[in-house]
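User: For documentation purposes, I need each entry recorded in a consistent format: the amino acid sequence on its own, followed directly by the corresponding structure tokens. There are two entries in this batch. Please keep commentary to a minimum and don't merge the entries.

Assistant: Recorded as requested. Entry 1:
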Amino acid sequence: MSAARLVAIPDTEGDLVDLLEGLEEVLLSLLPAEGDGEDWEPAPGPLGDGSALEALQRVESEVRASERAPVVQPLAPDGRFELIPLRFVRLDPADLATVAGALAELGRATLPAGDELVAEVLSSRAAGGRHPGDRPRPVAELVAGFARAHGLLDLAPDVDTELLAGRLEGRQGRVVLSESEHEAYRRLTERTLAMFHTGDPLARFLYRG
């Protein structure tokens, strides 16, 4: 395992884990099932050799563990406004890179000359959804959701991440941020809004008030 990367994960109310689980189901569907014969044509790259699935499952394990742990409630410097909580995990950059390679293959499968097996699995997932009542959606939207989840976990750590981890990680209850810590929080979550929420105005309201 290479040096772990410190990652800040804002509370997404289960959306992040749901996307990771959806990607896991796609990767599972691309592996040979019992009874597949020698004529089985594996999916390209890390999709077909199981490495992407293994890397994703290690990432998922860390994310789920962080969500089970108690989380501190950060407050703005006024001591009243409740900010979206942050969780901190340490992920293997090699695992993130492997998952990125798998996502690149999924993206290529959405093109006219893409791999037929991958395209078929994606079309089935996009049409059926994962939960009762899920609407059918374009394949490109499905893959974009997976990419948003990976992008959130792959945001490069910076001094803001380290500062907030030092202030919030391992604590419980309510913590009032200083002015400088609050500015770090705003900068960090601005990247989250751009990557995971793609500028959604409701998400911006929840983060900013």
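Entry 2:
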Amino acid sequence: MGLLSFLNTERQNFDVSAADSRLSVDLTKFIIGSTPLGKEPWDGDSFAKELEKEVTLKSDRSGYELGVKDGKLDHAFFTIKNFKGIFLVEEKSLVLSSTTNRKEIISIFGEPYWADIDDGEIILFYEYQESTIELQFEFPDGEHLEFITLMKGGILSKQEKRESYRVTKPWPPEKRQ
């Protein structure tokens, strides 16, 4: 879970137990609730009032963390075993659990731009919208899905991070069909 540690610097963190546990997350349109990633939180979303500039909203009980940067939704992080919301793919509900494996993820999302394998942990990186949005699926034991991260200007958008992950593919990635 160390990938997000850099996101918490210089941010106010708080836990909101009243946050909506039935959060919907569209993994193909990159929309959390009714707010697209990279846009100001929509007032109708249960989390909108809690998110202010440079703030991270974390609900361990509901299994998610949301963050804004410059007033716009910047990242979302989901702990699969605790997440009570709904994942969507192409407007259809997608059941993901701690039994979901990487072959299942690849069958749904296609081949990732990059797969990082380190000490048995596997992270699948998907790059979208001309590499301005990154979707990650993390398998800490190498087999079972435990975390999903969705972010603007993802980890691999930075050259030094691509070098640290030993990325050998050209950047930016070819446009996904």
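Summary note for entry 2:
The first strand starts at residue 12 and ends at 15.
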